[in-house]
UniProtKB/TrEMBL annotation:
Database matches in SUPFAM superfamilies: alpha-D-mannose-specific plant lectins, Protein kinase-like (PK-like)
E.C. designation(s): 2.7.11.1
One protein family per Pfam: PK_Tyr_Ser-Thr
Name the record gives this protein: non-specific serine/threonine protein kinase
One biological process term in Gene Ontology: recognition of pollen
Any GO molecular function: carbohydrate binding
Coiled-coil residue spans: none
TM region(s), chain numbering: 450-471
Originating species: Malus baccata (Siberian crab apple)
Keyword set, alphabetical order: ATP-binding, Cell membrane, Disulfide bond, EGF-like domain, Glycoprotein, Kinase, Lectin, Membrane, Nucleotide-binding, Receptor, Serine/threonine-protein kinase, Signal, Transferase, Transmembrane, Transmembrane helix
């Protein structure tokens, strides 16, 4: 019996040894100079919505002081204090306290003399009491109380990490110079300051940006349109956004219509901001929106004076604004829009007769150098812009009530994009010729253009293949598979051949020699239906050779593809075709090579290069 008692005592002792009393965590409602928070304790907000304490993110063992939702089973960190100075986990390390002398908040690791992190404050009198509280918004607040009045000395919401919560500001305190901005985490395991930030550019027409590596513009969240930020087209259910710009501060903030719904937006380590809503019955976070989300959202995809239009009829989203043309048609053809557009050659915009062309439903250009006058109407805005030769465009500053105020842009127009159903109207200054083109209605509807180009493409290709076939038939016995498609109307063949007597038939060896045996160095582009090579004929003439894929073995299919692609094209004057080559399984079209002359040629090359990956290229 005695031995059993002894054994029992040992067990009790062991339990006390294994679980030291300090790890029995306490839930605090305030931190005072006498009541610090140790690793393991939590500070709860007034109605226990949020909790503050030490945590380890992901697979890391490091300890960080952070705020999370107390009631949500998946630990979701919304704020971190010592993000770049973690507490290295050792026994007794990790303490959040109010500093005895200066009254600020400090975090200590193992060494209780040198803080790892501190919130610097100035207490008005050493006699005043200082406490830290966690508010129900998720804001950690340090308060100074002089007996009759409490004053906020410092607050966590002034130093957001990667998450915006309702009523958190992103902007600038003009009086103190403090910027409210987000910085992404380094990784899921490391809340340290990452590569992306979300902050304000407090220009004359203020706008918000996602930056990569602090200063590279990554995504333009845009300007306040009166209802939303210009780069974020959607309205998010259960929430709305406000914008304040006065002499003291300038910021944007989002609010929830139902405070019992948890909503947060996170700028993640890949530079994408995602908004989440907590669904109680599903017990998970639902992603309700993300930005940037489309290729055109990324900053300046189409270069200066370009317009990124994901709804364009081309297989490439970059277009030029009215009155402009691609700076490098070759890059454009390779689906690289970064070079942007130049004024059409010979077009002057500072003489009589010029005017403005409306580009509808856009995210208006980067307003870094733009000017604003809120007392001007749209008409007055036009006059204001017309007065100054370097004014390139204008728009209403506020889209409410049919448009109020005036923004004018000077110099290149950067980062314009088109939306399908929201967006503002931008009025771009154009030369007299362009203005007349737009005014005369020569810009026919998309459907009509599509129909016309489809028709002309069909006729054109029909002709080409027919003639190739004819030439081929005359020069050699036709041993290959018969293309019934072309063989139906034999009676016309002789007439047709007369029309296109210029069309040459090339044999494979000639084409192979011209293109250096289809060498990679001569390759201009590639796509599902074939490859285009540059070549030089023995008479010195430069040609472009489109070699249709032979592995498909489907001549008719290839042909159909070609027609489909040409149907997508809106340019009227196609590049000159010189001839063709059909030998065994090879089918080739030979065009005149016109560098720097006609965009149409390159467009006729068509969709050869896959769309540039936005992430890979930035
Ligand atoms: C407080 O001041 C110290 C020393 O000036 C500085 O290293 C630290 O970053 C400041 N802390 C915060 C949160 O600004
Ligand atoms: C602080 O309190 C002491 C004692 O009550 C008083 O003598 C002193 O003047 C107070 N200091 C300030 C700055 O109010
Ligand atoms: C406490 O501070 C407020 C404002 O900061 C001031 O009006 C008030 O007189 C102070 N009270 C005492 C007891 O110092
Ligand atoms: C930040 O960017 C640099 C340079 O692009 C890269 O080397 C580094 O890995 C990035 N850091 C993170 C945390 O992604
Ligand atoms: C704005 O326009 C009005 C009307 O033309 C003008 O009187 C005023 O000076 C302008 N303000 C600025 C800042 O240019
Ligand atoms: C036109 O605008 C530019 C850029 O803001 C400015 O530097 C220039 O002085 C203006 N010219 C006139 C004539 O107002
Ligand atoms: C536009 O129409 C006017 C008159 O109808 C004509 O004089 C002008 O040449 C036309 N411009 C273009 C570019 O078609
Ligand atoms: C158009 O682009 C998409 C995506 O880049 C691609 O999947 C598709 O095959 C392209 N179509 C043509 C006709 O090039």
């Amino acid at each position: 019996m005695n031995s059993t008692k002894f054994f029992f005592v040992i067990i009790i002792l062991l339990i006390f040894l294994v679980i030291p009393p300090s790890s029995l965590s306490i839930a605090l409602d305030a931190i005072t100079p006498n009541q610090p928070l140790r690793d393991g304790d939590v500070l709860l907000s007034t109605t226990k919505i949020f909790a503050l304490g030490f945590f380890s993110p992901g697979n890391s063992h490091n300890r960080y002081l952070g705020v999370w939702y107390n009631k949500i089973p998946i630990q979701t960190i919304v704020w971190t204090a010592n993000r770049d100075n973690p507490v290295i986990p050792t026994a007794g390390a990790g303490l959040l306290a109010i500093h005895g002398n200066h009254g600020g908040l400090v975090i200590y690791g193992k060494d209780q003399n040198t803080p790892l992190w501190s919130a610097n404050v100035t207490v008005s009198s050493p006699n005043n009491s200082v406490i830290a509280q966690l508010w129900d918004t998720g804001n950690l607040v340090l308060l100074e109380n002089n007996g009759s009045n409490a004053r906020v000395l410092w607050q966590g919401f002034d130093y957001p990490t990667d998450t915006v919560l309702p009523s958190m500001k992103i902007g600038l305190n003009r009086r103190s110079g403090l910027k409210w901005f987000l910085t992404s985490w380094k990784s899921q395991d490391d809340p340290g300051s990452g590569n992306f930030s979300y902050e304000i550019d407090p220009a004359e027409f203020p706008q918000f940006f996602f930056y990569k590596g602090r200063r590279t513009k990554w995504f333009r969240v845009g300007t306040w349109t009166g209802q939303r930020l210009s780069g974020v087209p959607g309205f998010v259910p259960n929430s709305f956004r406000s914008f304040v710009n006065d002499k003291d501060e300038i910021y944007t903030m989002f609010h929830v219509t139902d405070s019992s719904v948890f909503v947060r937006a996170v700028l993640d380590e890949s530079g994408i901001a995602k908004r989440f809503v907590w669904r109680d019955h599903e017990n998970k976070w639902i992603e309700s929106s993300s930005s940037p989300s489309e290729w055109c959202d990324y900053y300046e995809q189409c270069g200066p004076n370009g317009n990124c239009d994901p709804y364009s009829n081309y297989n490439f989203s970059c277009l030029c604004l009215p009155g402009f043309e691609p700076k490098s048609p070759q890059d454009w053809y390779l689906k690289d829009g970064l070079g942007g557009c130049l004024r059409k050659s010979g077009a002057s915009t500072c003489q009589k007769g010029e005017g403005f062309v409306k580009v509808a439903r856009v995210k208006v250009p980067d307003s870094s150098g733009a000017r604003v006058n809120m007392s001007l109407s749209l008409k007055g805005c036009e006059q204001e812009c017309m007065k100054n030769c370097s004014c390139m465009a204008y728009a209403s500053a506020d889209e409410r009530e049919g448009g109020k105020g005036c923004v004018t842009w000077y110099g290149d127009l950067i980062d314009t994009r088109t939306y399908s159903n929201v967006g503002q109207d931008l009025y771009v200054r154009v030369d007299a010729v362009t203005l007349a083109q737009f005014a005369n209605g020569s810009v026919i509807s998309k459907k009509a253009r599509l129909a016309i180009s489809l028709l002309s493409a069909l006729v054109f290709l029909g002709l080409v293949f027919l003639l190739c076939w004819l030439v081929r038939r005359k020069s050699k016995a036709w041993r290959q598979r018969k293309y019934m498609f072309f063989m139906e109307d034999r009676t016309d063949l002789d007439d047709q051949s007369k029309i296109n007597s210029e069309l040459q038939f090339f044999d494979l060896t000639t084409v192979a020699a011209a293109t250096d045996n289809f060498s990679v160095a001569n390759k201009l582009g590639k796509g599902g239906f074939g490859t285009v090579y540059k070549g030089v004929l023995h008479n010195g003439k430069e040609v472009a050779v489109k070699r249709l894929s032979k592995n498909s073995g489907q001549g008719i299919e290839e042909f159909k593809n070609e027609v489909m692609i040409i149907a997508k094209l809106q340019h009227r004057n196609l590049v000159k075709i010189i001839g063709c080559c059909i030998e065994d399984e090879e089918k080739m079209l030979i065009y005149e090579y016109v560098l720097n002359k006609s965009l149409d040629f390159f467009i006729f090359g068509l969709g050869l290069v896959e769309r540039r990956q936005c992430l890979g290229n930035r």
